[in-house]
């Protein structure tokens, strides 16, 4: 299993690298590649514990760190309607339809399938939306939904599976279990969030802080799950809290944290989507005693109902909310259409299907697994491949927001420049009359501040001057990059000539790398 995962990880990173270079959605390419090679390689089973306890916590935590608590608070109503209301609605509708299609399947297992396929995974949709410039509010709703909907779906799944293998569970008891799990997840998340904030304020060590951050998602998830609370909510609460207060950490912590979690999310997402496609042979082999046409009809029906349920909820419930809350800002028609078509399913659904206990009859378990797999693949390949074209067709764009962002950045840089120069003048009055060397240092400080502010204003024009010529800042960055490359060549030559030790070379390279990172920004 370890060797298989290593091979899958290496292949997934290679495919994702090609997708990044070509500007294609990496999740879709990885799923397609997995489907193509699945019949040609030994089965690579998706261990549900691996998905839910190893992959899910860091992916949730990374997304929460990168999210805006303030923007999520602004869209809490649509996020709540999608992450709780829509999940329950989808689970109920799919469950009823599956029970009608397969009367021999117990009603509890039919609702379990509904809970399994109910939560969308916004990774693919958000990746496409960011690349094509979707409005920030739409992206925030998608991200917020994907952060919390797994908690609703997994709780419903546990209730349904419990009813299927252990007896009946009434609606009131199921609602009580859900509320307890949610409240427990919030409580554990808040306790950990404030405890860790207190600890980080006294650590002031970027290495220690980032080492702890690698452990946080697993600790939060396990702590909540060990008491039957929602691990998903606990992880998201901790991530949102720490991300909102990241400005209180040192610059070293922020630089390392950003790089670490970008790499972690990239690697885990690549493996996860490759594993989804690789389940084809495992899923198909479990089906027996049912004709291919019957199975295809069941799969098409579940997929269609899953997709349609999202549109029904979005348009019907949004209209109702508009009537009840006339001052509420709700997504416009085109944005609701995009939100509806963005309901692609992911690895949490497959992991839940693989986790169906052995007490469930093997034939029923195989059918649920197959219907889950076809729904996940169908939404990814049908909705995922057409999502970019739909964005272009509806002409939903965040270009105005991007311009306003650049304008706000330039104004903020100007205000910060004025405050920084005022602070410099105050310090100079304490310093007294500067000598010639001190005057040079002061001039460099003023020049650097003006240069950063000028760069922000230049970006409002797209980084080009009159007639498409390079702006002074763009020219400065280009020439300075070439100078840095020349300096690196000198350092490496001196190392190769044994006139410079490797430890010294790494320190010098780090200094140049930080400067180039600033130039890239």
UniProtKB/TrEMBL annotation:
Main location: membrane
Keywords in alphabetical order: Antiport, Cell membrane, Coiled coil, Ion transport, Membrane, Sodium, Sodium transport, Transmembrane, Transmembrane helix, Transport
One function term, GO molecular function aspect: potassium:proton antiporter activity
Gene3D superfamilies referenced in this protein's UniProt entry, alphabetically: 6.10.140.1330
Location relative to the cell: Cell membrane
Residue ranges that the Swiss-Prot or TrEMBL entry lists as coiled coil: 400-427
One GO CC term on file: plasma membrane
Membrane topology qualifier: Multi-pass membrane protein
Recorded superkingdom: Bacteria
Residue span(s) of domain Cation/H+ exchanger transmembrane: 15-391
Keyword DNA repair among UniProt keywords: no
TM annotation in the entry: 50-72, 79-102, 108-128, 177-200, 212-238, 259-278, 298-325, 337-356, 368-391
A Gene Ontology BP annotation from the UniProt entry: regulation of intracellular pH
Protein family according to the UniProt entry: Belongs to the monovalent cation:proton antiporter 1 (CPA1) transporter (TC 2.A.36) family.
Protein purpose: Na(+)/H(+) antiporter that extrudes sodium in exchange for external protons.
Protein name: Na+/H+ antiporter
Organism: Nonomuraea diastatica
